[in-house]
Task: structure prediction
Amino acid sequence: MPFPSSSLENLKGQPMFQILAACQNLKNAGKRILHFELGDPDFDTPELITKTCIQSLKSGNTHYMPARGSDDLIEAVRMTTGISRGFIPEKEQITITTGANSAIFYTLKSICDPSDEVLIPNPYFPSYLAAVEIAAIKPIFYELSAENFFSPNFENLELIVSSRTKAILINSPSNPMGTVFSPDIIGKLYDFAAKHDLYVISDEVYARMIYDSNVKFASASTFDSCKERTIVINGFSKAFAMTGWRVGVVIAPTNVSAKITLLSESIVSCVPGFVQDAARAAILCPKATTKQMYSTYRRRQIEICAQLQSAGLVIECLPQGAMYVFPNISKFSNNSEKFAMHLLNEAGIASVPGIYFGSKGESHLRLSCAGLDIDIADLGAYFYNAASIYKGD
Result:
């Protein structure tokens, strides 16, 4: 009997979907589930976007598209980048991808050879680790600690960079912490990359979702217009409630963009034209279209923090952006996986163990703000009751 490849034995994928499967089993058994596990907006995709897609389908836009993307969507990306980041990329710098996750993989595969190293934040979004494992790249983790408001320690970065390091990956606003790196930190990260001749892979999926008026979004792309070393990854899933549409964008130096486009062409051929038309409508839609979503996420972040505080947790810092809360649960447990499973089985609270985001995520849980208000209203009481009968690690 033949055996499958051993190269994927350590691949863990996205554990949030595995938690969702466990939730479904409990729900089928009659248990109420309070969903805080997935960053999947409970909002429908705005009507303007879906109507554009329907019109595109009716017009017959169901055939192959250029692998790089449609001219109309690329032009919209160019214009919105000029507004949000202060430069207008060339068409040859842009690739439309089937979601931001694939964009991460294409990017790493395009710039790294097997056994090259990439600096990855810890805590990290699990897809980063999956992508480096698939591409046979070695992850080197730089730690982000709550004591330092989840900001990088540049002295430690200097200790872990090596001649094999090819890139540093940054995520601001971040998943799972909601931290937004200041312009000063972004500038220092870019200078660090330039000093060691590294690519900067900047995951900016949550760039539109910043709530603290004292915090400003900053992108490393402003230093080189993505022409030298910065690679920007963005998507539509969170910002426009389009998780199921699977469309993302990569802006990169032209020689890297060419490879990203070839990879995308080789694996998926192209992003469907009607999806690209919908994505263009999303980019061009009035801010009022998404304002309610973002204000709702912020209200829920604040309410979740209040509910958890009422249950006895200390909230280290209120998230500055994104759509998650990342509380420290060390008062109850230092084993986030065991505690999260206890919450799920005893109280029906579905959350993601912090350890799934790396070693520095341990003693934390990630709770998404994309769920229902009725679930948030019951969170504190359900959490307190379950935590009070937890038997420890």
Notes: Residues 288-310 form the longest helix (23 residues). The chain has two domains: 6-44+289-388, 47-284. Residues 6-44+289-388 form a domain with the Aspartate Aminotransferase, domain 1 fold (CATH 3.90.1150.10).
